[in-house]
Amino acid sequence: MHTPGEMQSAAPAAAEEGAPAPRRRRAVVLPAILFAGLALLPAAALALSAGYMLDLFTRVMIFSVAALSLDLLIGYAALVTFGQAAFLGLGAYAVGILAAHGITDALVALPVALAVSGLFALLTGLVCLRTKGVYFIMITLAFGQMAFFTAASLAPYGGDDGLTLADRNTVAGLPLFDNPLAFYYVVLACLVGAYLMCRTLVASRFGRVLRGAKDNPVRMTTLGFRVYHFQLVAYVIAGMLSGLAGFLLGNATEFVSPAYMSWQRSGELIIMVLLGGMGTLHGAILGAATFLLLEEWLSAFTEHWKMIFGPFLVLIVVFVRGGLIGIGAAIGRRLFRG
């Protein structure tokens, strides 16, 4: 005999197992293609003598990690936050402040970045998750802006002007990050690791409770699940993943700034998730890549590139269910039927 709670938590798993074969294949094939393409990109950049592509796609992968963390909250827990960039900035400032005091080893900076972002997520999540809907959005925005103005007031660490790093972090004293190719593959490894961790979480009992609470939190609470605690853990995990992205971003740019924590940056992360397709994880990666590549391309024509990108995003959100992943699935269905 199964308890009602066990039956409820098993229902989404059964639904996934009963999903059409093409959908299950896409969930495996598309991420594999994305990661294979990223792994082979340095060879293409070398063949084309386009070294700038390494820097560009390193940035793409860093923001993909941050977008993944946000998709975990929005796509699977229905927690729409406008403060995700605060964790990105905290991870970057952990690198910058430690470097300003002569501590430049990643084996120290990375744990500190994760701990600071995780602690901030825990303390703010304890308050934010007691609210719902628009109130949750506004209070996360308030905490994000609080982090932004705090960073801007840190005069010893650059204040509004930001803080320039003398060099990238070392790894056990070795200048591994100074090699652009080595750093690229470090970032790729972090992205793959973050994706696999999120995929494992979503497929686990923990993820099934999150999705159940997204659809009907009252019912999940009635069945004996402490929804608040599950959401708090997800919020902390997402904060730490975004802190990881901040650690990588600080090293990539060798510069940290309060702008990393702005609400506009949080809005861009939400756009990346919407553009790729919420609740897919690999859609967040695709959305981040599309957003940043379009930014790079359109900004070459005009500094007002967002006036072109805005209507495109509106069309995607209004007329295409599931973002770019939804477009791909629709095309695949038409070809399959044809």
UniProtKB/TrEMBL annotation:
Highest taxon in the source lineage: Bacteria
Gene Ontology terms: cellular component: plasma membrane
TM region(s), chain numbering: 28-54, 60-79, 86-103, 109-129, 134-155, 182-202, 223-249, 269-294, 306-331
Pfam families associated with the record: BPD_transp_2
Principal cellular location given in the protein's record: membrane
Keywords associated with the record: Cell membrane, Membrane, Transmembrane, Transmembrane helix
GO terms assigned for molecular function: branched-chain amino acid transmembrane transporter activity
Keyword Plastid belongs to the record: no
Membrane topology category: Multi-pass membrane protein
Subcellular location: Cell membrane
This protein's name: Branched-chain amino acid ABC transporter permease
Organism of provenance: Rhodoplanes serenus
